Amino acid sequence: MRVSNLFTKTSKTAPADEVAKNAQLLIRAGYVYKEMAGAYSYLPLGIRVVEKIKQIVREEMNSIDSNELIMTSLQRREVWEKTGRWDDDTVDVWFKSKLKDDTEVGFGWSHEEPIVEMLKQYVQSYKDLPISLYQFQTKMRNEKRAKSGIMRGREFVMKDMYSFHASAEDLEAYYNQAIDAYKRVFDRLGIGEDTYVTFASGGAFTKFSHEFQTICDAGEDVIYLHRGKNIAVNEEVIDDAVAELGIDRADLEMVKTAETGNIFNFGTQKTDEMGLYYTDSEGKRQSLYIGSYGIGITRAMGVVVEKFSDEKGIVWPESIAPFLVYLVRIGGEEATAHADALYDELTAKGVEVLYDDRDERPGNKFADAELMGLPYRVTVSDRLIESGQYELTRRNSGEMALLTRDELLDTLN
């Protein structure tokens, strides 16, 4: 894509009421637009990042035999009343409204109850199990105070997955597969080294659930790490976990984190509450065991920006950068011809390039490249053309090299 055709421009300032670094940088670099506190629009650059995160998650969920679908955000009151979670005293983040016929509805903040209700139409026998389903959807949560930019909003994109099993043992096996898949997701997002499977308050069936907590100064959680044993415990369950795991609290390190994922073992609670059963091989009615698995897509994007940025701007990992290369043209007609040809050649080879073809000062182009944070900057100039070279700069290290055309193509392919 050419910058001259790109919707939105960079800015030297962010909204005065925006205090979160991730949102400030994303707004200034043209990735998001702030509609109001806790609500952001994702612009063309931003949606490219979101879609790349989603694709990584999609590939890993598919690898454990989950099926993608998308459910309606409109929620029926009577479905949620079966588990008591329609009550605002139980769940205090509902957005609710009424249809024109006065039917009361809510806007989905999660989908455990609706998916259990849906499966009544699709599960009869043990032969129908196991089932795993996931979706990417915009969730709505009426948080009292939205903060931390896109890391905690009232509207956000989430991947939620639900698995259904005939036995506790089958659920446990799949649960462990999901943990491994989540680890692969965070590795591919570039934050795996700082993301820990963390003991947290339990679901209905087990004493502990598991969160995926990423070390992040802008995070809202506190966890305790035992680096030697690779154990992490959420502050809210620290006493119980220390006793359960047989570890010395003095060996634990307290760190700030952001929750980027979570998984719950619900046991048979939801099926029992909502009347979802299956018939086993002996013709007897049985309850289903359910697991729930979430990853915050836009939250992960915000965490990456918080962790990988500097005084100049964002530093995207290659796996989710909107483009791999920021191509800068400096000079007259000859530089333009060379830059145009390089852009066409890289694009034809499948390299994603954002080509700054504007008639702007070089300093402005370099500043925008650093603010946007693409992994590589390639500069074509009249001076370099004379020596048959291109300047390649790595955004994460600032390392610069002068390369021939063939060397450049080998590096970027």
Topology record:
Blueprint: H1 21-28, E1 32-36, E2 39-42, H2 44-63, E3 67-68, E4 74-76, H3 77-81, E5 95-98, E6 104-107, H4 112-119, E7 131-140, E8 155-165, H5 168-189, E9 195-201, E10 208-215, E11 221-226, E12 231-234, H6 238-245, E13 253-267, H7 269-274, E14 277-279, E15 285-287, E16 289-296, H8 297-307, E17 309-310, E18 313-314, E19 325-330, H9 333-348, E20 353-356, H10 362-372, E21 376-381, H11 382-387, E22 390-394, E23 400-403, H12 405-412
Parallel strand pairs: 3-7, 9-12, 19-20, 19-21
Antiparallel strand pairs: 1-2, 4-6, 5-6, 7-8, 8-16, 9-10, 10-13, 11-12, 11-13, 13-16, 14-15, 17-18, 21-22, 22-23
Helix pairs in contact: 1-8, 2-5, 2-8
Structure description:
- This protein has helices spanning 21-28, 44-63, 77-81, 112-119, 168-189, 238-245, 269-274, 297-307, 333-348, 362-372, 382-387, 405-412, and strands at residues 32-36, 39-42, 67-68, 74-76, 95-98, 104-107, 131-140, 155-165, 195-201, 208-215, 221-226, 231-234, 253-267, 277-279, 285-287, 289-296, 309-310, 313-314, 325-330, 353-356, 376-381, 390-394, 400-403.
- A hairpin with a 5-residue loop joins strand 5 and strand 6.
- It is 31% helix and 31% strand.
- The mean pLDDT is 96.
- The protein has two domains: 8-310, 2-Layer Sandwich (BirA Bifunctional Protein, domain 2), CATH 3.30.930.10; 325-412, Rossmann fold, CATH 3.40.50.800.
- The chain is an alpha+beta fold.
Strand percentage, roughly? Answer: 25-35%
* CATH level-four homologous superfamily name of the largest domain: Bira Bifunctional Protein, Domain 2
Coarse structural class? alpha+beta
Estimated helix fraction: 25-40%
Low-confidence stretches: none
Main sheet attributes: strand count, strand direction, barrel closure:
5 strands, mixed, barrel
